[in-house]
Specification:
Layout lengths: L3 H25 L13 H6 L4 H20 L3 H21 L5 H18 L29 H15 L4 H20 L6 H18 L7 H32 L1
Helix pairs in contact: 1-3, 1-5, 1-7, 1-8, 3-4, 3-6, 4-5, 6-7, 7-8, 8-9
Length: 250
C-alpha cells in the first residue's frame, strides 16, 4: 500500500501524462482525438505565419512528455522537461488574454513543480561537490521495473505514427497507451485494492474523454468515474489516517 503522498504523486503523473499526451495527439489529428486543454487548431493558426512545422513540433513534444510521465520509469525526466513547456504555455495564455485559461495552466505548473519536489533528492548532486554514488530510493521506484514502461513507449510511438494517416486507428493506439500506462501501475504489488480501483477509474476516464465524440452518455460516464474517484480518495485518506492512529496506540 502506497502512502497518501506517494499515491497522490502517482495520480498527478497519470493526470498530467493524459493532459499533454492527449493534447498533442489532438493537435496532430486536427481535433479527432479527445482531450482537455487543446487547442486543436494550433497548426492551422500558426500556418498563417509560416509556423506550421513549429506547431507540429509542439504537438509531438507534448506526446513525448506525456508518455514519459505515463511510463513511471522515466517520469522524473518527463517532469523536468515539462517545466519549460508549462511556463511557455502559461506565458502564451497570459499574453493572449485568454479568460480563465492562465489559471488552469498555473495549476498544471504547480502540479509539475510538486512532482519535482517529490523527486528533489535525485537532484541534490547538482548542488554538491561530492560525487553522486546512487540515486535515493523512493516508494514509487517499484513501478519503474519490468517491460511495461517500454510497452507504453511503443504504443505511444504507434499513436504518433498513425496520427497523420488514420484517425480511428490513432484513437485505438491511444487507448492502448492509456491501458498500458494503467497496467504499469496496477500489475506490480505496490498498490492495494482500493488504490488500484482508483487508477482503473482514472484510466476509464481517459478512455471516455478520448472517445467522447463517438459514444452516447459520455458526460454521464465521466461524471460517474470522476465522482467515484473523489469518493474513493476520501475513503482512502480516512483508512490511512485510521491505520496511523491504530499504529500509534499499539
Amino acid at each position: 500500500m502506497l502512502q497518501n503522498k506517494d499515491f497522490l504523486v502517482l495520480l498527478i503523473r497519470l493526470f498530467l501524462g493524459y493532459v499533454f499526451f492527449s493534447a498533442g495527439v489532438c493537435k496532430l489529428t486536427h481535433g479527432n482525438f479527445g482531450q482537455l486543454i487543446g487547442p486543436p487548431w494550433l497548426e492551422e493558426r500558426l500556418a498563417e505565419y509560416g509556423l506550421s512545422f513549429f506547431a507540429q513540433v509542439v504537438a509531438v513534444c507534448q506526446v513525448v512528455l506525456g508518455t514519459l510521465l505515463f511510463t513511471q520509469r522515466f517520469s522524473t525526466l518527463g517532469a523536468v522537461m515539462l517545466v519549460p513547456m508549462n511556463i511557455a504555455i502559461l506565458a502564451v495564455t497570459i499574453s493572449q488574454n485568454w479568460a480563465g485559461t492562465p489559471y488552469v495552466n498555473a495549476v498544471f505548473l504547480a502540479m509539475n513543480l510538486a512532482l519535482l519536489l517529490y523527486d528533489r533528492k535525485r537532484f541534490q548532486f547538482l548542488f554538491s561537490i561530492e560525487p553522486a554514488l546512487s540515486a535515493p530510493s523512493l516508494a514509487l521506484d517499484t513501478l519503474r521495473t519490468g517491460k511495461l514502461p517500454w510497452a507504453v513507449i511503443g504504443a505511444a510511438l504507434l499513436t504518433l505514427g498513425l496520427s497523420r494517416f488514420n484517425y480511428p486507428l490513432t484513437n485505438a493506439a491511444g487507448l492502448l497507451t492509456f491501458c498500458l500506462a494503467g497496467a504499469t501501475v496496477i500489475l506490480p504489488h505496490a498498490l492495494d485494492r482500493l488504490q488500484k480501483l482508483i487508477v482503473l477509474l482514472a484510466v476509464g476516464n481517459m478512455c471516455f474523454l478520448t472517445l467522447g465524440m463517438k459514444l452516447p452518455y459520455t458526460h454521464v460516464s465521466i461524471a460517474i468515474c470522476s465522482g467515484g474517484i473523489l469518493v474513493l480518495l476520501v475513503v482512502h485518506a480516512w483508512l490511512h489516517a485510521r491505520q496511523k492512529r491504530t499504529a500509534s496506540t499499539v
